[in-house]
Structures are given as C-alpha cells and as structure tokens.
Write a structure and sequence with these properties.
The complex is a heterodimer.
Chain A (H helix, E strand, L loop, with lengths): L17 H29 L6 H26 L7 H16 L6 H24 L5 H20 L9 H8 L1 E5 L3 E4 H18 L1 H11 L1 H6 L4 H27 L9 H11 L11 H20 L4 H22 L5
Antiparallel strand pairs in A: 1-2
Helix pairs in contact in A: 1-12, 2-7, 2-10, 2-11, 2-12, 3-4, 3-5, 3-10, 4-5, 4-10, 6-10, 7-8, 8-10, 11-12, 11-13
Chain B lengths: L1 H33 L17 H10 L20 E2 L11 E7 L5 H16 L3 E8 L4 H12 L6 E5 L3 H12 L5 E4 L10 E5 L2 H15 L5 E6 L5 H15 L4 E7 L4 H15 L4 E4 L5 H10 L13 H10 L5 E2 L8 H10 L4 E2 L1 E4 L3 E2 L4 H4 L26
Parallel strand pairs in B: 2-3, 2-4, 4-5, 5-6, 6-12, 7-8, 7-9
Antiparallel strand pairs in B: 1-11, 10-13
The chains are: A mainly alpha, B alpha/beta.
Chain lengths: ~325, ~400
C-alpha cells in the first residue's frame, strides 16, 4: 500500500476489485472522519444536548453552505486549480437576491433560477479564462473575487437594498415540520445530502475519473484522450453553481448583508485540504472535502463553546491549512 | 501506515488544542479584568478604553436639555461654550466648502453622506462643494487634506477623520492655512479646529442599552453581549459603559462575543449560547446591524424573542413595530452629517459656534417608535438622519 488516496480512476484501479477500491476510499478519508468524530464527541461532552436530533440538525443546517462550497471547490482543486472567487460570489448572490426579489414571494423561484445561472456563468468565465487564455486559475479567480467585490460595492454603495421574501428565506432557515423525533428536517440539510450524493455519483462516473486524471497529470490525461480544457471548465462551472446554491442558503439562514460571503473562499479551501485533498490536484475524495467542511464547522462551534472569539478562529484556520498540507506532503513523500 | 496516519492526526489535534488553550486563558484574563470584578463597582477604574470622568460626563449630558430648536436636533447643542469665529468671517457672497471624508464604506456613512449632500443643496450661498473620499485610508486622507488646502480653493474645510491620532497633524496643518476647520464624528487631538461636532458619545450609547436591559430583564437574568470587533475606540467605549452598568446590576453577563458584524456568525453564536445556557434573557448589542439576526436565533429555536437592543436601522425598527417586541434602540444619529455644513456657513458669516458642538443623542423606545419609523425605506436605512423633511425624501435615500 504505497498510496492511500483513491488512485486515478481508469488507470491502475481497473485491476482492483470493487471491494478493495471501496476500502481504499474509506481509508483515504478515514483520518478526517476520525477527527470529526473526536470533535463532535468533545462538543457533546461540553454540551450534552448537542447530539440530540434538534441541535445536531441545527449544526448540519449551519454547516450546509460551507459543505456545499467545499464540494464545489473540490472539483476545481482536484483538477489542479483554485477557486478563490466563491466567497464574493456568495455575497453577490445574497445581495442580488434581495435587490431582485424585493420581498415579493412570487419572484422567489424565477430569481433562484437566475441566481443559479449567475453562478454557472461566473464559473464558466473562470473556466474559459483559465483554460483558453491560460491564465493560472489562482490569478483568474483572484481577479474575479476583486471584480465581484467591486461590483457589489458599486451596485449597493455598501448598503444593500431590497428584501428577501419569506419563501426564499425558508430554504435556508426552515424545514419540513412535524416529523416525529426530529421535529423539523431543515431544507438545507436535504439540499446538502442531495448535493453530496450527486457529487459522489459524479466522481464515480467517467467525468470524475477524467477530472482526477487531469489533476494528477494533465499531459498524460490529454494523451489518453481526455479533453482536459473541457473537464476543467466544467469543474469551474460546478464550483460557481454550487457557490450560488450556498449563497441561497446563506441568504436564507441569515438574511441580507453585504458581508455575507466574506472569507468563505478561505473557509472552503481550509475545509478541502483538511479533508485530505491535495492542492495541485489528482488526490483526495469529495466525501473527504465535505467531511473537512463539517469538521471545520465543528471546530468553530467548539471554539465558540469554549468562549474563544472570532479573531482566533482565523489563527486556528491558518494553523490548520499549514498543518494539513504539511501532513499531506508527509504522507505523500516518495510518491511524487 | 495506519500508525503514521494517526501520528499526523495527533499532531493536528495538538496544534488545535494548543491554540485553543492559549485562547481560553487569554479571554479569561481579559474578562477577569473588566467583567468579573464587581468588587470595584462604586469606584470604576480607568483602563485603556475607560475614562471614568468622561463616562460620568456623558451619562449626565443625557439629561441636560439641549439649546436650540427641538424639531431640528442637528442644530441643537448641549452645554455650548461659544468660540470666537470673527477671524474667519468672509464677505464673499458664495462660499467654496471642502470636505475630506474618511470613507463611505458602511450603511451609516452612506446615509450620512447622502444627508450631507442634501443639506448642501439647501444652501444657495454654497458656490462649490468639493468632497474627497479617503476610502478608509489614513494616508489617502492626509494627502486629500493637503490637496484641498493647497491652492486656496476652500473657504472652509470639513473633516471626518478616519483615525484620531494619525490625522491630527494633517488637521493642524489645515488650521494653519487660515481657513476654518470643522471636525465631526471622530475627533482629533488638537483644539485648533473652529468646532468639533459630535453626538454625546459611546459611553451614553452603551449605557442606554444596558440600562434598558437592567430595567426590562428580571433579576438574575442571563445577558449575552455581542460586539463587532475588539480594539476600536468608538465601539470599546460602548462596551465599557455597559460593562459598568451590568457589574452594578443583578444581571448575569454569560458571555461577550465578537460577531465581526456578520449575520450568519451572529445567529450561530446566539444559537450556541441558547443551547449552552438553556436560556438567554436579553442581548446587548454594540451596534444594531445584526440585532435582527440575533432575534432569528430565538425564533428558530422556537423561543419567544427577549429584549434585544438595536439601533435606528430600518430592519430592526420594522421587526420591532410589526411584532410588538420588547426592544429599544440607542442611536448614534446620522443627522450629525447636516451640522458641519450649517456650522461652516455660520462661521463664514461671522456667527458664533460652540467650540465643541455636542448634539443630542436620542433613544428610540416603545413610546416614540412611531415618530421615527418611516415605512418603505431600505433595510439598512438609519431613521435618525433628520432627512425626512428634506427635498428628495424618500427617493434620494432609497
């Protein structure tokens, strides 16, 4: 067992049995689940009610936007890129939603469709600029971050106008009522699971294998017939669309704010590397990335319960990014 | 292999733990200095952000009847000591007024800036109004001020300083240019300006909110204090005053947290506290932008909304009015953006203005909520703009 990560699909894994592959996948994400379990147990010790269905679902609901962003970011990172624009995209989505809906419930669904289209378009632009114009995605999406941030400021002058309607907010805030035992099943948790399952299925399909192959070695992938540019562009579109979904949930959860997505891109990247995905691409699983997001959110909850304030969260996050990447290189020593 | 993996995990956990542990110590120390020493309750000690004399002065100023027209609070003054302005009297019939603005990067400044422009439009005797936005940068504001005073283009200069200490030399330089300098909102460490305009201040703001909770939450109730950021003087004074008042009360402050002004963050923190403490009986806020988000945490937990202090922001006032909540809002009125223009004109016409022009700082309560609330404004509009009777209202502020 020289590599613990899911190996590039379609190359070596074809000789392995399904069972072994599943075992590999589990082992490769095992670390993060163990860490998640430890943190959840720790929170439960400090606050025994945490593991009851209600509070636990509330935690999942709160974590949902970050988990979804992590899933989207995973596609880009595993293909060898970066997406720094998702945080400001979330802000754009929230501010645009308020401006366009203006409290009218009837506008909620058309606006949601439009918001998803905005997300996909931003992703498409990111993807085309990074692939066709060959601008490194770090720069492309950093530029996009600044463009979107500036656009929000120009549009709102620092004070968003309009209002979200109740039915729009319900997606991030409410759920299906009256279920025995858990009382309320939040919509955002359902969205979270739907996206999680979709992402896993996608990574098991041809596209997923091509994506990992591209991130692992794009020349080799290109020579074996993978349309590398197309695969990467789709990854950015997925990331943009999922950022729009996250934005809809964030807006629903907390309401209108011109800072809605502030710093979320770094939260997402932290979550993804914490989940064992290697920056530079080719290694790591989407389940790991999402578990990384749950872990990060659990860590924030824990810090909060211990009375450690916001400023230190950044410090903890910085330590995690460095430690997780150092840990990954330590594990991968010799394999590259 | 597995062992190695666990070793890495262990290292990661240790990292997190070490960080966590340091943080806990720090915050305990910090809290111990201020919150948990009610022993010193009758003689409050001075600290970096607490000046007992200024605190007492502001608390007293709240009860002083201001001079001036009651329906135009932006022209009112508390205990004015008039200064001589004859040296700046000008016989021009049109004045050029310049304004160095710290920033327009938040809703409060947005509303204020719109109001100031509307005030300028009211005066035909202003020939030219030049405003420069420093975009929250001290360096840019220093060069802005230098640019404005060079070339003799300004008959008066209004400054809203970005920070106190750093901008002081630039303001002194402007004073030496022989034009009246009018400073408002944040001050500077020099008395050379013709006037310094500001509402009563942060201690009064924090105390208003804390006193409301002391009166409206049952004895022994649990209070959560939510603040935006540490270390910002205008916000620290608000908390310092509240801290004094809570220390002298029967209320228990179960936590003070920093929200970074983020609604989602605020909601999460409040939810955590509701879970951890079982109940929260009141929330003190150092600014109103996330008060509504805090209240939603109670709604989502299926609880009644307790007293939560806010600010004169539209979203807060709307919810308060619609749901008839036990709320109250201290204010830091945006109508103070009208006063500098009025002061500049008075000075240029040779009329006296107070050396320190202290504006009244009303609080919004159940009794006067209807008076201040205007329907149909955007969620981050500030009701105390004093702009309701200005031409172009409400469209200009929407």
């Amino acid at each position: 067992m020289t590599t613990e990560q899911a190996t590039p699909g379609g190359f070596e894994s074809s000789v392995e049995s399904r069972g072994r592959r599943a075992l590999h996948a589990l082992l490769s994400t095992g670390t993060i689940f163990l860490l998640l379990f430890v943190l959840l147990a720790w929170i439960a010790v400090l606050n025994p009610s945490f593991l009851e269905p209600g509070p636990f679902l509330a935690y999942l609901k709160r974590a949902a936007p970050l988990v979804i962003l992590a899933a989207g970011g995973y596609f880009v990172i595993v293909s060898g890129g970066f997406d720094l624009s998702v945080g400001s995209l979330v802000t754009v989505i929230v501010v645009a939603a308020a401006r366009l809906i203006e409290g009218e419930p009837s506008r909620a669904w058309p606006v949601i469709a439009l918001l998803l289209a905005i997300g996909a378009t931003v992703g498409l632009v990111n993807g085309l600029v990074s692939t066709l114009l060959r601008v490194p995605s770090f720069i492309t999406t950093l530029g996009m971050l600044l463009i979107l941030e500036g656009a929000v400021f120009l549009w709102t002058g620092g004070a968003p106008t309009g209002a979200l309607s109740e039915n729009f907010r319900a997606i991030g805030r409410q759920g299906i009522e009256g279920i025995p035992l858990i009382e309320q099943l939040p919509w955002s948790v359902l969205v979270l699971f739907a996206i999680g399952i979709g992402a896993v299925l996608l990574m098991r399909a041809d596209y997923g294998r091509q994506l990992i192959a591209t991130g692992d070695n794009d020349r080799a992938a290109r020579m074996s017939g993978v349309r590398v540019n197309q695969v990467r562009t789709i990854a950015f579109v997925l990331s943009g669309t999922l950022a729009a979904v996250a934005g809809i949930l964030v807006g629903g959860f907390a309401g209108v704010s011109a800072q809605a997505g502030l710093g979320l891109e770094f939260d997402a990247i932290t979550a993804i590397v914490l989940g064992g995905v290697v920056l530079g691409g080719g290694r790591g699983s989407v389940v790991g990335a999402m578990a990384g997001a749950l872990t990060l959110e659990a860590l924030f909850t824990l810090l909060n319960l211990q009375g450690i304030s916001g400023a230190l969260e950044d410090t903890v996050q910085g330590v995690i990014i460095i430690a997780a990447v150092a840990f990954a290189s330590y594990r991968l020593r010799g394999t590259r | 292999m597995t062992l190695r993996r666990l070793a890495g995990l262990f290292a990661l956990l240790v990292c997190a733990l070490v960080i966590g542990a340091c943080g806990t110590d720090e915050s305990d120390d910090g809290g111990g200095d201020t919150a948990e020493q009610p022993a010193a309750e009758s003689t409050p000690e001075a600290s970096e952000f607490f000046d007992p004399e200024e605190y007492e002065r502001q608390l007293a100023q709240r009860d002083i009847e201001p001079e001036g027209p009651a329906d135009r609070p932006w022209e009112q003054m508390i205990e004015p000591e008039m200064g001589d302005t004859s040296e700046w009297q000008s016989d021009k019939d049109r004045y050029n007024i310049c304004f160095s603005n710290a920033a327009v990067d938040n809703p409060w400044r947005q509303v204020g800036w719109t109001t100031m422009q509307a005030e300028v439009d009211l005066h035909d005797e202003i020939g030219n109004f030049r405003a420069v936005d420093a975009e929250a940068s001290d360096d840019k504001q220093i060069s802005d001020i230098q640019g404005l005073i060079s070339g003799d283009r300004c008959d008066a200069l209004i400054v809203s300083p970005n920070t106190t200490a750093t901008l002081t030399p630039a303001v002194e330089q402007a004073c030496n240019a022989d034009i009246p300098v009018i400073v408002f909102d944040r001050g500077v460490n020099t008395d050379c300006p013709a006037t310094f305009i500001h509402p009563i201040g942060g201690y009064a703001y924090g105390a208003d909110a804390a006193e409301f909770l002391v009166e409206n939450v049952d004895s022994g109730g649990k209070i959560l204090a939510l603040r935006i950021l540490p270390g910002v003087d205008v916000l620290e004074t608000r908390w310092a005053a509240a801290d004094q008042i809570f220390a002298d009360s029967e209320l228990e402050v179960v936590g003070q947290e920093f929200t970074e002004g983020d609604a989602a963050n605020t909601k999460s923190i409040v939810s955590d506290y509701i879970q951890r403490e079982g109940q929260i009986d009141g929330v003190w806020m150092d600014a109103g932008a996330t008060s509504v988000a805090a209240s939603e945490a109670f709604e989502d937990a299926g609880l009644d909304i307790p007293p939560i202090t806010g600010e004169d922001q539209q979203d807060y006032l709307t919810k308060w009015q619609e749901e008839d909540l036990p709320w109250m809002a201290p204010t830091y009125p945006t109508y103070q953006w009208r006063t500098p223009v009025i002061a500049a004109l008075r000075i240029l016409k040779g009329e006296e203005v107070p050396k320190e022009w202290i504006l009244p700082q009303p609080q919004i309560t159940d009794e006067n909520l209807d008076e201040y609330f205007v329907e149909g404004m955007p969620p981050l509009f500030y009701a105390l703009c004093g702009c309701q009777d200005m031409p172009g209202f409400p469209e200009r502020w929407q």
